[in-house]
């Protein structure tokens, strides 16, 4: 048995899915967390649960909402769990009525009762149950309260709701007409199909064309619109008004508004953090605080401990084990100077990356990130981007891959494509080890400011490029930005840990796969050369490859073959740059590498290098995702070419202008 989980965005749907199935999917206190369907098994083993993207209506506006409609049209399932935000019943119940019209058994999970109480709303569950004609279970998806009762209710409930919205004589006549055309041709509810057709659901229109014939369906639409126009309305408007009236009747019976003696905390905080003058400075201050935690206060000290463990205790154990196994000198050197040096050089920065992810998770789960989207919306709009692009780009700070995928929530194709090709400029965690390496070598006292400047540079460039692209090759329609601001809440330690681990495990996974394999290849290229094996580093194949690129990099301040060879590995994964440097310079620990960097680079050249890492080609995983989301080789190739050109141009300006001003 398969059960569909549906609800408005940011109603706690993914949290409920996790509690009902015992799995862990990413949870955030903002809309757009779920962008594709996910399948899990109920803990009671009685059914599969399908978590679908959040939708305000079954008439899709964006790519992620289209997943819901296509699922309802094409997939086989038996029941529906509709999660409803108790504090926003008026809006949520509009979707509930559409789901009831689908004529499958529906069970309501009434979430966020505590938030409703905070707004002075008292929900009478018995009245709601009687009005809707389906089971209603009070739950706390965040805490897991009531989830077992809900699971039992949905797996045992078999009756469809008897609630039927009266759309008026004219609309009901047309519903009967269309129903007679398709009744014997589909297992879907003919009434639901007709109502979705009247509302302008393009997916349903296409489906009915195949069932009843294009001419018949198009003629039906012309006639019903003509009939509605005679009374000064549109057909879709009549459908909406009828549903709204039913919702108002339900609220009159089931919702009691109590007098509030004090202002809601969320409103107090929002007056400050969304203020048009204070909003951006507060955001930058929080970012600075996050980087101070990561680089100065805790992160660097923890990284030092990991470095000492890897280069000391762990390396000694491996060395002793290899000696006991009597392995060949070739294998011993490969393991010690290739794998441990390469992978260990990246793992050293794991504490700092996890601290960064913890801070981001805290801001997300608290509800603050939705306010960031609101604060920067004006800037985004002026640059040609939709305010919804903020959410994918913030996700991109963790990893560009889910950020690109999250662009599905943007309605128009032009704005979605614009977001996708700009998103790789958001500074993901994979670039972080490179920043940490050079900050430790040159900017130890001002590390947080340096990283903040790089993040702000990425945001500034995205806005400028968006303006240029939307005025040239990506002209087109703009959509309105509407965002729901969730209530603030104190993130739980359990959710913070799960969210941090979910982000951080990707970094660890890459260290054990891409970085491991890359370290072996890099070491082999340093071990072999035109003269044979075990050659001097400068005579290796890797040096020959790096020397082909180094003249091009000289105007940027880092024209060495070592820099060129390291940058090539960044296409596989940006962390591999540090891994390559550790192998190339053959140093015992990260502090030795940083000391060596201070002799090879200047502070200006190192900043130029970090900016180049920020902007040059997307990594392989991101590029593959861009191709998947755009289905275009042209735009994938464009992402490579223009990012390389931009990286070269900006780094050139930074280095050359810096030299003119006497910086080193």
Automatic annotation (TrEMBL):
One of its GO terms (molecular function) is GTP binding. The chain crosses the membrane at residues 277-297, 309-327, 339-363, 389-410, 417-443, 449-469, 511-529, 604-627, 639-658. It is a multi-pass membrane protein. It is found in: Cell membrane. GTP binds at residues 7-14, 32-36, 51-54, 111-114. The keyword Acetylation does not apply. GO terms for cellular component: plasma membrane. Mg(2+) 2 binds at residues 18, 21. Its main location: membrane. Probable transporter of a GTP-driven Fe(2+) uptake system. This is Ferrous iron transport protein B.
